Amino acid sequence: MNHKDFTRATQKITLTLLLLVPYISFSQQNDSTDIDEFIAKQVSDYKIPGLAIGIIKDHKVIFKKGYGVTSTSKGLPVNTQTIFPISSCTKAFTAAALGILVDEGKIKWHDKVVKYLPNFKLSDPWITKELTIVDILSHRSGLKTFDGDLLWYGTKYTREDIAKLIRYSPIRTNFRTDFAYQNIMYLVAGLVVESITGKTWDEFLKERIFTPLKMSGTATTRDSITSESNFALPHIQNKPIKPLNMHNIGPAGSVDSNIDDMLTWMQMWLANGRTNDTTLLNDGTIKTITSIKTLTSDNKDDGYGLGWYIKQTKNGKMINHNGGMPGYISSVVLFPDSSSGIVILTNKISQINDQLVKEITNYMTKKDTFNWKEADKDMSGKTTFFDWDKKRKPQPKKSDVIPNFNRYQGDYEDLTYGKARIRKEKGKPFLELLPTEDLFSGFLYNIDADRFKIIFNDPFVPEGEVVFTRDNNKKITGFKLNIDSNDFLFNDLDFDKTP
Is residue 494 classed as helix, strand or coil in its secondary structure? Predict the structure, then answer.
């Protein structure tokens, strides 16, 4: 998911930390002690279950450590080998995969997507014909931010299914002008890799990136993860929850990694595509990937490249990306001018990632005048709460009685998303969106005529409303969802009742 969305989202939170068990490696004892004590306090103050961090300065790893636990229920101590989903930080891996193919002369950045995926379509035929590799990697396809995310989140759809269904989404932004964050276009980029190489995106990343860089703890699937693995579980309401399977949106967000591996990955970028005796990407390709292709604000120095946000700061050029899913935030920040970087992985959504990056960056650039106590005061998100971390209020008993409920029961369908069903569960009115029935299902509560409250099983999704439509004869013809979510476009869905 979107870096900016999760930055906005991190405004409301609390949890309980069970334990702080350190794992540490450092090269400068005094610096490391100050950093360690500061981070430990923040992890405790923000009540984060588990956090792992790595810091690079002048090409060298100066600090890496794990704090807390993988799970508040009999978890392991977090260390620098603990695996976390990096979510949208995956996008840089997909951009790098295509960069490798550019370096090998198998593809050009401005090649048309349909050259490699002739059956791919968007709703606009001209954009379909003109859409390039750079367009889909720089979020300027003409689709709206988060268009299509409901197609992959918790659904049974395959990558190919999702790429096919996106053709029904309307073009709502200006092609090649407007920045609109798109996960589906990165899925399409992964399919381009597969078309060119004859290998799956997953196989290609393992063979051409993970293995050469010796990133042995990094993977695109969780086939080897067991209940005993050193894997950080996501947390909501101070409890571990089941992590979402990201395989069907893999090229946009399915990489899992650890601090040790991510530090190697970052060092490669800071060394212009090289690490040890391995050259992963050529200098020119690194420059292309980390140059602005789409502006993200009115500032000409603030934009998106290929898999990275790019910004000019007082500390020079900054290349960064965040990733987030329910119960996780990942952050990767690079300062090429000073050959420095920070990576932070956590198993709870909070403001701690962005705020730690800010303070640690200030420390590294203003060491002589830096004041840790003042920095602690600047960590301003310690008492904020997310709605999903609050317990939901029980609904009045009478509200689950819906008059003439049989009129609403039955099957419904949205052209793009798929089918829904309204029925009774344990004698109570119930709605389930069938492509995502484990998460997007829940009991209905009466508000007034043709308007019901819906509370989905997924605690990450806020409460909302189901609003029914009727024809001239007062017969139910369908329904729409009114759910105020920053992450999913529920309001775009339009379910028609099926015979």
Answer: strand
pLDDT at 353 (0 to 100): 97
For 371-421, the pLDDT digits (tens) are 999 999 999 999 888 888 888 888 887 788 899 999 999 999 999 999 999
Contact, 435 vs 157, CB < 8 A? Answer: yes
Q: What one-character-per-residue DSSP string does 416-445 give?
A: TTEEEEEEEETTEEEEEEGGGTTTSEEEEE
319 near 37, Cβ under 8 Å?
A: no
> pLDDT digits over 311-357, tens only?
999 989 999 999 999 999 999 999 999 999 999 999 999 999 999 99
Enumerate the H helices of 334-409 as residue ranges.
352-365, 372-378
CA within 13 Å, CB half, 453? 14
Task: Quote the tokens at residue 11.
Answer: 């405004």
Angle at which helices 352-365 and 29-45 cross, to 10°: 160
Query: To 5 degrees, how large is the angle CA 15–CA 18–CA 457?
Result: 40
What Å distances lie between residue 327 and 145, 153, 499, CA to CA?
21, 14, 40
Beta 328-335 vs 464-470: how paired, if at all?
Answer: unpaired
Q: Give the global pTM.
A: 0.93
